[in-house]
Protein backbone atom coordinates (compact mmCIF):
# COMPACT_ATOMS: atom_id res chain seq x y z
CA UNK A 1 0.00 0.00 0.00
CA UNK A 2 2.65 2.52 1.00
CA UNK A 3 4.70 1.68 -2.02
CA UNK A 4 4.93 4.65 -4.35
CA UNK A 5 3.02 7.02 -2.08
CA UNK A 6 5.65 9.74 -1.84
CA UNK A 7 6.59 9.88 -5.52
CA UNK A 8 2.87 10.16 -6.22
CA UNK A 9 2.36 12.99 -3.72
CA UNK A 10 5.35 14.90 -5.03
CA UNK A 11 4.31 14.32 -8.63
CA UNK A 12 0.81 15.67 -8.05
CA UNK A 13 1.86 18.67 -5.99
CA UNK A 14 4.93 19.74 -7.92
CA UNK A 15 3.40 21.71 -10.80
CA UNK A 16 0.61 23.43 -8.83
CA UNK A 17 3.04 24.58 -6.17
CA UNK A 18 5.66 25.80 -8.64
CA UNK A 19 3.05 27.84 -10.53
CA UNK A 20 1.43 29.20 -7.41
CA UNK A 21 4.62 30.14 -5.59
CA UNK A 22 6.28 31.50 -8.71
CA UNK A 23 3.44 33.60 -10.08
CA UNK A 24 1.41 34.48 -6.97
CA UNK A 25 3.33 34.31 -3.70
CA UNK A 26 6.70 35.45 -4.95
CA UNK A 27 5.31 38.61 -6.65
CA UNK A 28 3.34 39.41 -3.48
CA UNK A 29 6.55 39.19 -1.46
CA UNK A 30 8.57 41.14 -4.02
CA UNK A 31 6.06 43.98 -3.72
CA UNK A 32 7.29 44.49 -0.15
CA UNK A 33 10.93 44.58 -1.25
CA UNK A 34 10.43 46.95 -4.18
CA UNK A 35 8.41 49.34 -2.02
CA UNK A 36 11.65 50.26 -0.25
CA UNK A 37 13.39 51.33 -3.45
CA UNK A 38 13.21 54.16 -5.97
CA UNK A 39 12.89 51.68 -8.82
CA UNK A 40 11.46 53.18 -11.99
CA UNK A 41 10.36 49.89 -13.49
CA UNK A 42 12.06 50.54 -16.82
CA UNK A 43 15.56 49.32 -15.96
CA UNK A 44 16.99 46.94 -13.41
CA UNK A 45 18.67 49.81 -11.55
CA UNK A 46 17.35 50.79 -8.16
CA UNK A 47 18.55 52.23 -4.88
CA UNK A 48 17.42 51.31 -1.43
CA UNK A 49 15.69 54.38 -0.02
CA UNK A 50 14.17 52.96 3.15
CA UNK A 51 10.72 54.26 4.01
CA UNK A 52 10.87 57.35 1.78
CA UNK A 53 8.04 56.06 -0.44
CA UNK A 54 5.82 55.70 2.61
CA UNK A 55 6.51 59.17 3.97
CA UNK A 56 5.79 60.51 0.49
CA UNK A 57 2.45 58.65 0.50
CA UNK A 58 1.49 60.41 3.74
CA UNK A 59 1.71 63.81 2.02
CA UNK A 60 0.22 62.70 -1.29
CA UNK A 61 -3.18 64.33 -1.61
CA UNK A 62 -4.19 62.24 -4.62
CA UNK A 63 -3.48 59.10 -2.64
CA UNK A 64 -5.48 60.38 0.34
CA UNK A 65 -8.39 61.12 -1.99
CA UNK A 66 -8.13 57.67 -3.57
CA UNK A 67 -8.08 56.04 -0.13
CA UNK A 68 -11.17 58.02 0.83
CA UNK A 69 -13.02 56.97 -2.32
CA UNK A 70 -12.13 53.34 -1.69
CA UNK A 71 -13.36 53.66 1.90
CA UNK A 72 -16.61 55.20 0.68
CA UNK A 73 -17.16 52.27 -1.71
CA UNK A 74 -16.10 49.83 0.99
CA UNK A 75 -18.91 50.99 3.26
CA UNK A 76 -21.67 51.89 0.80
CA UNK A 77 -21.33 49.10 -1.76
CA UNK A 78 -21.86 46.16 0.65
CA UNK A 79 -24.61 47.93 2.61
CA UNK A 80 -26.68 48.97 -0.41
CA UNK A 81 -26.15 45.76 -2.40
CA UNK A 82 -26.88 43.45 0.53
CA UNK A 83 -30.01 45.38 1.57
CA UNK A 84 -31.52 45.32 -1.93
CA UNK A 85 -30.52 41.70 -2.52
CA UNK A 86 -31.94 40.60 0.83
CA UNK A 87 -35.21 42.39 0.18
CA UNK A 88 -35.55 40.83 -3.27
CA UNK A 89 -34.51 37.38 -2.06
CA UNK A 90 -37.11 37.52 0.70
CA UNK A 91 -39.81 38.59 -1.75
CA UNK A 92 -38.86 35.93 -4.27
CA UNK A 93 -38.68 33.08 -1.79
CA UNK A 94 -41.08 33.58 1.09
CA UNK A 95 -42.80 36.90 0.51
CA UNK A 96 -45.58 35.74 -1.76
CA UNK A 97 -49.20 35.06 -1.05
CA UNK A 98 -49.82 31.41 -0.46
CA UNK A 99 -53.33 30.56 -1.47
CA UNK A 100 -53.12 27.12 0.02
CA UNK A 101 -50.99 28.17 2.94
CA UNK A 102 -47.63 27.01 1.61
CA UNK A 103 -44.63 29.29 1.95
CA UNK A 104 -43.62 30.54 -1.47
CA UNK A 105 -42.28 33.51 -3.40
CA UNK A 106 -44.19 36.13 -5.36
CA UNK A 107 -45.48 35.39 -8.86
CA UNK A 108 -42.86 35.39 -11.58
CA UNK A 109 -40.03 34.66 -9.16
CA UNK A 110 -38.07 32.39 -11.54
CA UNK A 111 -38.21 35.07 -14.26
CA UNK A 112 -36.88 37.76 -11.92
CA UNK A 113 -34.09 35.51 -10.67
CA UNK A 114 -32.88 34.82 -14.20
CA UNK A 115 -33.07 38.46 -15.34
CA UNK A 116 -31.46 39.98 -12.24
CA UNK A 117 -28.49 37.69 -12.75
CA UNK A 118 -27.74 38.93 -16.29
CA UNK A 119 -25.09 41.55 -15.41
CA UNK A 120 -23.14 38.89 -13.53
CA UNK A 121 -22.40 36.85 -16.65
CA UNK A 122 -21.35 39.86 -18.70
CA UNK A 123 -17.75 40.85 -18.32
CA UNK A 124 -17.30 43.99 -16.21
CA UNK A 125 -15.44 45.55 -19.12
CA UNK A 126 -18.46 45.07 -21.39
CA UNK A 127 -20.61 46.65 -18.69
CA UNK A 128 -18.17 49.54 -18.55
CA UNK A 129 -18.53 50.25 -22.26
CA UNK A 130 -22.30 49.84 -21.96
CA UNK A 131 -22.58 52.29 -19.05
CA UNK A 132 -20.21 54.66 -20.75
CA UNK A 133 -22.85 54.91 -23.48
CA UNK A 134 -25.72 55.15 -20.98
CA UNK A 135 -24.02 58.00 -19.10
CA UNK A 136 -23.26 60.08 -22.20
CA UNK A 137 -23.47 63.75 -21.34
CA UNK A 138 -25.79 64.77 -24.17
CA UNK A 139 -29.34 63.75 -25.05
CA UNK A 140 -28.10 60.61 -26.81
CA UNK A 141 -27.21 58.89 -23.55
CA UNK A 142 -29.93 56.63 -22.17
CA UNK A 143 -29.82 58.16 -18.68
CA UNK A 144 -30.26 61.69 -19.99
CA UNK A 145 -32.79 60.44 -22.52
CA UNK A 146 -35.00 59.15 -19.72
CA UNK A 147 -34.64 62.34 -17.67
CA UNK A 148 -35.53 64.46 -20.69
CA UNK A 149 -38.59 62.25 -21.38
CA UNK A 150 -39.67 62.71 -17.78
CA UNK A 151 -39.07 66.45 -17.99
CA UNK A 152 -36.38 66.41 -15.29
CA UNK A 153 -33.69 67.69 -17.65
CA UNK A 154 -33.67 69.58 -20.91
CA UNK A 155 -31.86 68.93 -24.16
CA UNK A 156 -29.75 72.04 -23.69
CA UNK A 157 -28.92 71.39 -20.07
CA UNK A 158 -28.43 67.65 -19.61
CA UNK A 159 -26.93 66.06 -16.47
CA UNK A 160 -23.16 65.75 -16.73
CA UNK A 161 -22.99 62.32 -14.96
CA UNK A 162 -19.39 61.12 -15.09
CA UNK A 163 -18.02 64.55 -15.93
CA UNK A 164 -19.62 66.07 -12.84
CA UNK A 165 -17.10 65.91 -9.96
CA UNK A 166 -19.89 65.57 -7.39
CA UNK A 167 -21.79 62.87 -9.26
CA UNK A 168 -19.06 60.64 -10.62
CA UNK A 169 -18.55 58.41 -7.56
CA UNK A 170 -22.31 57.90 -7.25
CA UNK A 171 -22.50 56.88 -10.89
CA UNK A 172 -19.75 54.33 -10.28
CA UNK A 173 -21.50 53.05 -7.15
CA UNK A 174 -24.78 52.71 -9.07
CA UNK A 175 -23.17 50.52 -11.74
CA UNK A 176 -21.49 48.31 -9.13
CA UNK A 177 -24.76 47.85 -7.23
CA UNK A 178 -26.69 47.29 -10.47
CA UNK A 179 -24.37 44.49 -11.52
CA UNK A 180 -23.93 42.94 -8.07
CA UNK A 181 -27.48 42.59 -6.77
CA UNK A 182 -28.34 39.58 -8.97
CA UNK A 183 -25.52 37.44 -7.69
CA UNK A 184 -26.18 38.13 -4.01
CA UNK A 185 -29.89 37.65 -4.58
CA UNK A 186 -29.18 34.14 -5.86
CA UNK A 187 -26.72 33.53 -3.03
CA UNK A 188 -29.27 34.57 -0.40
CA UNK A 189 -32.02 32.61 -2.15
CA UNK A 190 -29.97 29.44 -1.96
CA UNK A 191 -29.41 30.03 1.75
CA UNK A 192 -33.07 30.85 2.36
CA UNK A 193 -34.18 27.66 0.71
CA UNK A 194 -32.06 25.86 3.30
CA UNK A 195 -34.24 27.27 6.07
CA UNK A 196 -36.96 24.74 6.95
CA UNK A 197 -40.43 25.93 5.95
CA UNK A 198 -41.97 24.84 9.27
CA UNK A 199 -40.17 27.71 10.96
CA UNK A 200 -42.03 30.20 8.74
CA UNK A 201 -45.28 28.34 9.15
CA UNK A 202 -44.88 28.39 12.91
CA UNK A 203 -44.25 32.15 12.82
CA UNK A 204 -47.30 32.52 10.65
CA UNK A 205 -49.47 30.68 13.13
CA UNK A 206 -48.30 33.05 15.81
CA UNK A 207 -49.52 35.92 13.65
CA UNK A 208 -46.14 37.28 12.61
CA UNK A 209 -46.05 40.16 10.15
CA UNK A 210 -43.88 39.95 7.08
CA UNK A 211 -41.37 42.43 8.45
CA UNK A 212 -41.15 40.59 11.75
CA UNK A 213 -40.62 37.29 9.97
CA UNK A 214 -37.78 38.84 8.03
CA UNK A 215 -35.95 40.45 10.93
CA UNK A 216 -36.61 37.78 13.56
CA UNK A 217 -36.20 34.64 11.47
CA UNK A 218 -34.68 35.10 8.03
CA UNK A 219 -31.91 37.54 8.87
CA UNK A 220 -30.50 35.73 11.93
CA UNK A 221 -30.50 32.41 10.08
CA UNK A 222 -28.78 33.97 7.07
CA UNK A 223 -26.16 35.81 9.06
CA UNK A 224 -23.23 33.68 7.96
CA UNK A 225 -24.13 34.09 4.29
CA UNK A 226 -24.45 37.85 4.76
CA UNK A 227 -20.95 37.83 6.24
CA UNK A 228 -19.59 35.94 3.23
CA UNK A 229 -21.30 38.42 0.91
CA UNK A 230 -19.77 41.29 2.86
CA UNK A 231 -16.24 39.96 2.42
CA UNK A 232 -16.75 39.37 -1.32
CA UNK A 233 -18.20 42.86 -1.84
CA UNK A 234 -15.36 44.40 0.14
CA UNK A 235 -12.91 42.80 -2.28
CA UNK A 236 -14.90 44.21 -5.23
CA UNK A 237 -14.87 47.65 -3.61
CA UNK A 238 -11.11 47.56 -3.05
CA UNK A 239 -10.58 46.70 -6.68
CA UNK A 240 -13.25 48.24 -8.99
CA UNK A 241 -10.40 48.89 -11.40
CA UNK A 242 -11.96 47.66 -14.63
CA UNK A 243 -15.00 49.85 -14.24
CA UNK A 244 -13.42 53.08 -13.01
CA UNK A 245 -10.43 52.95 -15.33
CA UNK A 246 -12.64 52.62 -18.39
CA UNK A 247 -15.71 54.78 -17.77
CA UNK A 248 -14.40 57.77 -15.86
CA UNK A 249 -12.70 60.60 -17.75
CA UNK A 250 -8.95 61.05 -17.51
CA UNK A 251 -6.03 59.85 -19.62
CA UNK A 252 -4.44 56.56 -18.51
CA UNK A 253 -6.81 54.63 -16.28
CA UNK A 254 -9.45 57.29 -15.66
CA UNK A 255 -9.98 58.62 -12.17
CA UNK A 256 -11.25 61.99 -13.35
CA UNK A 257 -12.56 64.59 -13.49
CA UNK A 258 -9.59 65.98 -11.60
CA UNK A 259 -9.10 62.87 -9.41
CA UNK A 260 -12.70 62.94 -8.19
CA UNK A 261 -13.13 59.23 -8.86
CA UNK A 262 -9.51 58.23 -8.26
CA UNK A 263 -9.12 54.82 -6.61
CA UNK A 264 -5.96 53.30 -5.23
CA UNK A 265 -5.96 50.75 -8.05
CA UNK A 266 -6.14 53.37 -10.82
CA UNK A 267 -3.53 55.56 -9.15
CA UNK A 268 -1.24 52.56 -8.64
CA UNK A 269 -1.52 51.51 -12.28
CA UNK A 270 -0.85 55.03 -13.53
CA UNK A 271 2.21 55.42 -11.29
CA UNK A 272 3.55 52.11 -12.51
CA UNK A 273 2.77 51.99 -16.23
CA UNK A 274 2.66 55.70 -17.03
CA UNK A 275 4.79 57.63 -14.55
CA UNK A 276 7.59 55.07 -14.21
CA UNK A 277 7.37 54.93 -10.43
CA UNK A 278 7.26 51.20 -9.81
CA UNK A 279 8.73 51.47 -6.30
CA UNK A 280 6.15 54.06 -5.29
CA UNK A 281 3.36 51.93 -6.79
CA UNK A 282 4.58 48.95 -4.74
CA UNK A 283 4.40 51.04 -1.56
CA UNK A 284 0.75 51.72 -2.36
CA UNK A 285 0.25 48.00 -2.80
CA UNK A 286 1.70 47.33 0.63
CA UNK A 287 -0.57 49.94 2.22
CA UNK A 288 -3.59 48.25 0.61
CA UNK A 289 -2.36 44.88 1.81
CA UNK A 290 -2.50 45.95 5.46
CA UNK A 291 -5.67 47.93 4.88
CA UNK A 292 -7.43 44.82 3.50
CA UNK A 293 -6.00 42.60 6.22
CA UNK A 294 -7.14 44.87 9.05
CA UNK A 295 -10.57 45.41 7.52
CA UNK A 296 -11.16 41.69 7.01
CA UNK A 297 -10.23 40.93 10.60
CA UNK A 298 -12.29 43.81 12.01
CA UNK A 299 -15.38 43.03 9.94
CA UNK A 300 -15.27 39.33 10.75
CA UNK A 301 -14.87 40.17 14.42
CA UNK A 302 -17.55 42.85 14.48
CA UNK A 303 -20.15 40.71 12.75
CA UNK A 304 -19.43 37.61 14.82
CA UNK A 305 -22.53 35.73 15.97
CA UNK A 306 -23.15 32.33 17.42
CA UNK A 307 -23.80 29.74 14.78
CA UNK A 308 -27.42 28.66 14.71
CA UNK A 309 -28.06 25.01 13.93
CA UNK A 310 -31.28 24.02 12.27
CA UNK B 1 -56.30 43.80 11.17
CA UNK B 2 -60.02 44.37 11.11
CA UNK B 3 -61.18 41.84 8.57
CA UNK B 4 -61.30 38.36 9.97
CA UNK B 5 -62.23 36.53 6.83
CA UNK B 6 -61.15 32.96 7.37
CA UNK B 7 -61.11 31.65 3.84
CA UNK B 8 -57.45 30.90 4.06
CA UNK B 9 -56.64 28.21 6.50
CA UNK B 10 -53.11 27.19 7.20
CA UNK B 11 -52.60 23.46 7.45
CA UNK B 12 -52.16 22.43 11.03
CA UNK B 13 -53.81 25.56 12.35
CA UNK B 14 -54.84 25.02 15.88
CA UNK B 15 -57.95 26.07 17.77
CA UNK B 16 -59.45 29.51 17.47
CA UNK B 17 -56.43 31.54 16.51
CA UNK B 18 -57.68 34.21 14.09
CA UNK B 19 -56.21 34.18 10.62
CA UNK B 20 -56.45 37.75 9.43
CA UNK B 21 -56.60 38.89 5.87
CA UNK B 22 -58.11 37.20 2.86
CA UNK B 23 -55.85 34.72 1.17
CA UNK B 24 -52.96 36.24 2.98
CA UNK B 25 -50.36 34.36 4.83
CA UNK B 26 -48.80 37.23 6.67
CA UNK B 27 -50.68 39.25 9.20
CA UNK B 28 -49.96 42.65 7.72
CA UNK B 29 -52.71 42.58 5.11
CA UNK B 30 -50.19 42.26 2.32
CA UNK B 31 -52.26 43.95 -0.39
CA UNK B 32 -50.45 47.27 -0.38
CA UNK B 33 -47.11 45.68 0.34
CA UNK B 34 -47.59 43.24 -2.49
CA UNK B 35 -48.18 45.99 -5.02
CA UNK B 36 -45.21 47.78 -3.56
CA UNK B 37 -42.85 44.81 -3.74
CA UNK B 38 -44.06 43.76 -7.17
CA UNK B 39 -43.44 47.30 -8.29
CA UNK B 40 -39.89 47.21 -7.00
CA UNK B 41 -39.15 43.90 -8.67
CA UNK B 42 -40.59 45.07 -11.98
CA UNK B 43 -38.67 48.36 -11.86
CA UNK B 44 -35.42 46.52 -11.19
CA UNK B 45 -36.10 44.10 -14.07
CA UNK B 46 -36.61 47.10 -16.38
CA UNK B 47 -33.40 48.67 -15.09
CA UNK B 48 -31.52 45.51 -16.03
CA UNK B 49 -33.16 44.86 -19.39
CA UNK B 50 -33.50 48.41 -20.74
CA UNK B 51 -29.76 49.21 -21.15
CA UNK B 52 -29.13 45.80 -22.71
CA UNK B 53 -31.97 46.14 -25.22
CA UNK B 54 -30.96 49.73 -25.91
CA UNK B 55 -27.46 48.56 -26.89
CA UNK B 56 -28.83 45.84 -29.18
CA UNK B 57 -31.14 48.40 -30.82
CA UNK B 58 -28.22 50.80 -31.15
CA UNK B 59 -26.36 48.38 -33.37
CA UNK B 60 -29.11 48.79 -35.99
CA UNK B 61 -29.23 52.58 -35.85
CA UNK B 62 -27.25 54.99 -37.97
CA UNK B 63 -24.46 57.13 -36.60
CA UNK B 64 -26.63 60.25 -36.73
CA UNK B 65 -29.44 58.53 -34.85
CA UNK B 66 -27.11 57.37 -32.07
CA UNK B 67 -25.75 60.87 -31.64
CA UNK B 68 -29.29 62.25 -31.64
CA UNK B 69 -32.03 61.46 -29.17
CA UNK B 70 -31.61 58.27 -27.12
CA UNK B 71 -35.18 57.26 -28.01
CA UNK B 72 -34.86 57.00 -31.76
CA UNK B 73 -35.92 53.75 -33.37
CA UNK B 74 -33.74 52.03 -36.02
CA UNK B 75 -34.87 53.00 -39.50
CA UNK B 76 -33.89 49.78 -41.21
CA UNK B 77 -32.71 46.45 -39.89
CA UNK B 78 -29.35 45.67 -41.47
CA UNK B 79 -26.30 43.89 -40.18
CA UNK B 80 -23.69 46.28 -41.66
CA UNK B 81 -22.57 47.48 -38.24
CA UNK B 82 -21.94 43.91 -37.14
CA UNK B 83 -19.64 43.15 -40.04
CA UNK B 84 -17.80 46.45 -39.51
CA UNK B 85 -17.34 45.61 -35.80
CA UNK B 86 -16.10 42.15 -36.71
CA UNK B 87 -13.56 43.53 -39.16
CA UNK B 88 -12.24 45.92 -36.53
CA UNK B 89 -10.95 42.95 -34.58
CA UNK B 90 -13.83 41.82 -32.38
CA UNK B 91 -13.70 38.40 -34.04
CA UNK B 92 -9.99 38.10 -33.32
CA UNK B 93 -10.43 39.15 -29.68
CA UNK B 94 -13.16 36.58 -29.34
CA UNK B 95 -10.92 33.83 -30.69
CA UNK B 96 -8.05 34.91 -28.40
CA UNK B 97 -10.30 34.70 -25.38
CA UNK B 98 -11.61 31.27 -26.32
CA UNK B 99 -8.09 29.93 -26.91
CA UNK B 100 -6.83 31.21 -23.57
CA UNK B 101 -9.88 30.03 -21.62
CA UNK B 102 -9.76 26.54 -23.16
CA UNK B 103 -6.20 26.16 -21.94
CA UNK B 104 -6.48 27.93 -18.61
CA UNK B 105 -9.75 26.42 -17.38
CA UNK B 106 -8.68 22.88 -18.30
CA UNK B 107 -5.31 23.31 -16.64
CA UNK B 108 -6.83 25.00 -13.57
CA UNK B 109 -9.25 22.14 -13.05
CA UNK B 110 -6.59 19.48 -13.59
CA UNK B 111 -3.85 20.96 -11.41
CA UNK B 112 -6.30 22.29 -8.82
CA UNK B 113 -8.04 18.98 -8.26
CA UNK B 114 -4.74 17.08 -8.25
CA UNK B 115 -3.34 19.28 -5.51
CA UNK B 116 -6.62 19.31 -3.58
CA UNK B 117 -6.90 15.51 -3.76
CA UNK B 118 -3.41 14.91 -2.42
CA UNK B 119 -3.92 17.47 0.35
CA UNK B 120 -7.32 16.05 1.30
CA UNK B 121 -6.54 12.35 1.15
CA UNK B 122 -2.88 11.80 2.04
CA UNK B 123 -1.09 12.44 5.29
CA UNK B 124 2.43 13.71 4.99
CA UNK B 125 4.68 16.22 6.63
CA UNK B 126 3.91 19.77 5.55
CA UNK B 127 0.38 18.98 4.37
CA UNK B 128 -1.25 21.62 6.61
CA UNK B 129 1.38 24.17 5.69
CA UNK B 130 0.83 23.76 1.95
CA UNK B 131 -2.95 23.86 2.38
CA UNK B 132 -2.89 27.16 4.28
CA UNK B 133 -0.37 28.56 1.82
CA UNK B 134 -2.93 28.03 -0.93
CA UNK B 135 -5.87 29.37 1.09
CA UNK B 136 -4.00 32.56 2.01
CA UNK B 137 -3.64 33.48 -1.65
CA UNK B 138 -7.38 34.04 -2.21
CA UNK B 139 -7.48 36.83 0.37
CA UNK B 140 -5.93 39.75 -1.49
CA UNK B 141 -6.69 41.71 -4.64
CA UNK B 142 -4.63 40.76 -7.68
CA UNK B 143 -3.18 44.19 -8.31
CA UNK B 144 -1.04 43.97 -5.19
CA UNK B 145 1.25 41.63 -7.10
CA UNK B 146 0.92 43.35 -10.43
CA UNK B 147 4.24 45.19 -10.71
CA UNK B 148 6.52 42.23 -9.91
CA UNK B 149 4.26 39.89 -11.89
CA UNK B 150 4.79 41.99 -15.01
CA UNK B 151 8.56 41.54 -14.74
CA UNK B 152 8.23 37.88 -13.81
CA UNK B 153 6.33 37.19 -17.03
CA UNK B 154 8.77 39.32 -19.04
CA UNK B 155 11.63 37.23 -17.67
CA UNK B 156 9.75 34.06 -18.57
CA UNK B 157 9.71 35.42 -22.10
CA UNK B 158 13.50 35.43 -22.11
CA UNK B 159 13.51 31.73 -21.29
CA UNK B 160 11.01 30.89 -24.02
CA UNK B 161 9.28 33.37 -26.34
CA UNK B 162 6.08 31.36 -25.98
CA UNK B 163 5.76 32.26 -22.30
CA UNK B 164 6.50 35.97 -22.24
CA UNK B 165 4.38 39.11 -22.38
CA UNK B 166 1.60 39.15 -24.97
CA UNK B 167 1.68 35.36 -25.34
CA UNK B 168 -1.22 32.95 -24.90
CA UNK B 169 0.73 30.41 -22.84
CA UNK B 170 2.08 33.08 -20.48
CA UNK B 171 -1.40 34.42 -19.77
CA UNK B 172 -2.76 30.88 -19.37
CA UNK B 173 -0.16 30.09 -16.71
CA UNK B 174 -0.94 33.34 -14.86
CA UNK B 175 -4.70 32.67 -14.96
CA UNK B 176 -4.11 29.15 -13.65
CA UNK B 177 -1.87 30.36 -10.84
CA UNK B 178 -4.41 32.97 -9.67
CA UNK B 179 -7.33 30.53 -9.89
CA UNK B 180 -5.57 27.78 -7.95
CA UNK B 181 -6.21 29.08 -4.39
CA UNK B 182 -9.98 29.02 -4.71
CA UNK B 183 -10.06 25.80 -6.76
CA UNK B 184 -7.85 23.97 -4.26
CA UNK B 185 -9.84 25.35 -1.34
CA UNK B 186 -13.15 24.25 -2.83
CA UNK B 187 -12.09 20.85 -4.21
CA UNK B 188 -10.29 20.08 -0.95
CA UNK B 189 -13.54 20.25 1.00
CA UNK B 190 -15.27 18.27 -1.74
CA UNK B 191 -12.75 15.41 -1.74
CA UNK B 192 -13.00 15.29 2.06
CA UNK B 193 -16.70 14.47 1.83
CA UNK B 194 -16.28 11.52 -0.56
CA UNK B 195 -16.44 8.11 1.18
CA UNK B 196 -13.02 6.60 1.79
CA UNK B 197 -14.23 2.99 1.42
CA UNK B 198 -14.26 3.18 -2.39
CA UNK B 199 -10.75 4.52 -2.39
CA UNK B 200 -9.52 1.74 -0.09
CA UNK B 201 -11.22 -0.97 -2.17
CA UNK B 202 -9.51 0.31 -5.30
CA UNK B 203 -6.15 0.30 -3.59
CA UNK B 204 -6.69 -3.29 -2.33
CA UNK B 205 -7.43 -4.37 -5.87
CA UNK B 206 -4.01 -3.16 -6.85
CA UNK B 207 -5.02 0.10 -8.48
CA UNK B 208 -2.18 2.60 -8.57
CA UNK B 209 -2.53 5.99 -6.84
CA UNK B 210 -2.66 7.82 -10.15
CA UNK B 211 -5.24 5.48 -11.66
CA UNK B 212 -7.38 5.65 -8.52
CA UNK B 213 -7.45 9.39 -8.87
CA UNK B 214 -8.32 9.62 -12.56
CA UNK B 215 -10.68 6.65 -12.86
CA UNK B 216 -12.42 6.60 -9.50
CA UNK B 217 -12.09 9.85 -7.57
CA UNK B 218 -12.53 12.32 -10.44
CA UNK B 219 -15.82 10.79 -11.69
CA UNK B 220 -17.10 10.78 -8.11
CA UNK B 221 -16.18 14.44 -7.71
CA UNK B 222 -18.03 15.50 -10.87
CA UNK B 223 -20.65 17.76 -9.18
CA UNK B 224 -17.91 19.65 -7.39
CA UNK B 225 -15.84 19.93 -10.55
CA UNK B 226 -18.79 21.37 -12.46
CA UNK B 227 -19.46 24.00 -9.79
CA UNK B 228 -15.90 25.20 -9.52
CA UNK B 229 -15.49 24.89 -13.30
CA UNK B 230 -18.34 27.35 -13.92
CA UNK B 231 -16.89 29.65 -11.29
CA UNK B 232 -13.53 29.59 -13.06
CA UNK B 233 -14.97 30.12 -16.55
CA UNK B 234 -16.90 33.20 -15.43
CA UNK B 235 -14.02 34.48 -13.29
CA UNK B 236 -11.45 34.20 -16.06
CA UNK B 237 -13.83 35.46 -18.72
CA UNK B 238 -14.33 38.57 -16.58
CA UNK B 239 -10.62 39.08 -15.95
CA UNK B 240 -9.51 42.54 -16.99
CA UNK B 241 -6.57 43.86 -15.02
CA UNK B 242 -4.33 40.85 -15.80
CA UNK B 243 -4.69 40.98 -19.61
CA UNK B 244 -4.41 44.79 -19.58
CA UNK B 245 -1.04 44.47 -17.84
CA UNK B 246 0.32 41.39 -19.57
CA UNK B 247 -1.18 41.35 -23.07
CA UNK B 248 -0.04 44.62 -24.60
CA UNK B 249 2.11 44.39 -27.72
CA UNK B 250 5.70 44.98 -26.59
CA UNK B 251 6.93 46.00 -30.01
CA UNK B 252 5.06 47.89 -32.68
CA UNK B 253 4.73 45.08 -35.22
CA UNK B 254 3.59 42.39 -32.78
CA UNK B 255 0.26 40.65 -33.21
CA UNK B 256 -2.62 41.94 -31.07
CA UNK B 257 -3.50 39.17 -28.63
CA UNK B 258 -6.05 41.22 -26.67
CA UNK B 259 -8.78 39.48 -24.74
CA UNK B 260 -12.36 40.35 -25.74
CA UNK B 261 -13.13 42.65 -22.82
CA UNK B 262 -9.81 44.43 -23.11
CA UNK B 263 -10.06 44.83 -26.89
CA UNK B 264 -13.57 46.22 -26.65
CA UNK B 265 -12.58 48.81 -24.05
CA UNK B 266 -9.53 49.80 -26.10
CA UNK B 267 -11.65 50.27 -29.19
CA UNK B 268 -14.18 52.32 -27.22
CA UNK B 269 -11.50 54.52 -25.66
CA UNK B 270 -9.28 54.97 -28.68
CA UNK B 271 -10.14 56.09 -32.13
CA UNK B 272 -11.42 52.71 -33.31
CA UNK B 273 -15.08 53.69 -33.11
CA UNK B 274 -14.82 57.48 -32.98
CA UNK B 275 -16.71 57.93 -36.19
CA UNK B 276 -18.68 54.71 -36.04
CA UNK B 277 -20.90 54.47 -32.98
CA UNK B 278 -23.17 51.75 -34.45
CA UNK B 279 -20.17 49.44 -34.80
CA UNK B 280 -19.31 49.97 -31.11
CA UNK B 281 -22.86 49.01 -30.16
CA UNK B 282 -22.69 46.03 -32.50
CA UNK B 283 -19.37 45.03 -30.94
CA UNK B 284 -20.98 45.11 -27.50
CA UNK B 285 -23.88 43.00 -28.78
CA UNK B 286 -21.44 40.46 -30.22
CA UNK B 287 -19.62 40.32 -26.90
CA UNK B 288 -22.82 39.99 -24.85
CA UNK B 289 -24.99 37.59 -26.84
CA UNK B 290 -22.96 34.35 -26.69
CA UNK B 291 -22.60 34.56 -22.91
CA UNK B 292 -26.27 35.37 -22.43
CA UNK B 293 -27.30 32.47 -24.68
CA UNK B 294 -25.01 30.08 -22.81
CA UNK B 295 -26.29 31.43 -19.50
CA UNK B 296 -29.95 31.09 -20.49
CA UNK B 297 -29.47 27.50 -21.63
CA UNK B 298 -27.58 26.50 -18.49
CA UNK B 299 -28.99 29.00 -16.02
CA UNK B 300 -29.97 26.37 -13.47
CA UNK B 301 -26.48 24.86 -13.38
CA UNK B 302 -24.80 28.27 -13.43
CA UNK B 303 -26.80 29.60 -10.50
CA UNK B 304 -26.54 26.37 -8.51
CA UNK B 305 -22.85 26.03 -9.34
CA UNK B 306 -21.93 29.57 -8.44
CA UNK B 307 -23.77 29.64 -5.16
CA UNK B 308 -22.50 26.27 -3.97
CA UNK B 309 -19.02 27.39 -4.94
CA UNK B 310 -19.19 30.48 -2.75
CA UNK B 311 -21.20 29.02 0.12
CA UNK B 312 -18.66 26.28 0.84
From TrEMBL, chain A:
Assigned GO CC terms: plasma membrane
Coiled-coil segments on the chain, per record: none
Domain ABC transmembrane type-1 residues, every copy: 67-299
CDD domains for the chain: TM_PBP2
Bilayer-spanning residue ranges: 7-29, 67-90, 111-134, 167-187, 229-253, 278-302
Xref: InterPro entries: ABC_transporter_permease (IPR051393), MetI-like (IPR000515), MetI-like_sf (IPR035906)
Major location (coarse): membrane
Entry-linked SUPFAM superfamilies: MetI-like
Record membrane topology: Multi-pass membrane protein
Pfam families referenced in this protein's UniProt entry, alphabetically: BPD_transp_1
Subcellular location: Cell membrane
Single biological process term from Gene Ontology: transmembrane transport
Keywords: Cell membrane, Membrane, Transmembrane, Transmembrane helix, Transport
UniProt-listed PANTHER family: ABC TRANSPORTER PERMEASE PROTEIN (PTHR30193), DIACETYLCHITOBIOSE UPTAKE SYSTEM PERMEASE PROTEIN NGCF (PTHR30193:SF41)
Family: Belongs to the binding-protein-dependent transport system permease family.
This protein's name: ABC transporter permease
Organism listed in the record: Kitasatospora griseola
Amino acid sequence: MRHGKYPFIVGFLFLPIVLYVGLVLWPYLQTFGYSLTNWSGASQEMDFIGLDNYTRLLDDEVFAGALWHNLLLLILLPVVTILIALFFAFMLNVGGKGGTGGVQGVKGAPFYKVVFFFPQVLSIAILAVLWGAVYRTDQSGLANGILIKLGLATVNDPVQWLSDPDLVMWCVLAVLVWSGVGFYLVLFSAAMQGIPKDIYEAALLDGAKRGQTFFKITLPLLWETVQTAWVYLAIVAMDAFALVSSITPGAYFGGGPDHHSELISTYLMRSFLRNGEAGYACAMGVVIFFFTLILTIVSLWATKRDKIEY
Amino acid sequence: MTTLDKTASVPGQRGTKPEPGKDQRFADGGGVLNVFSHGFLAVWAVLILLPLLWVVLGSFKTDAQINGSAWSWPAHWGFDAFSRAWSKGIGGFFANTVIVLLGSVTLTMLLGSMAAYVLARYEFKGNRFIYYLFVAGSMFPVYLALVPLFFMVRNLGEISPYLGLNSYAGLILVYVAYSLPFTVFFMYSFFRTLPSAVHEAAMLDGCSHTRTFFQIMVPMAKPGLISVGIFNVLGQWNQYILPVTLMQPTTAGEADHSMLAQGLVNLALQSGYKSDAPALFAGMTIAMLPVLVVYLSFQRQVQAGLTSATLK
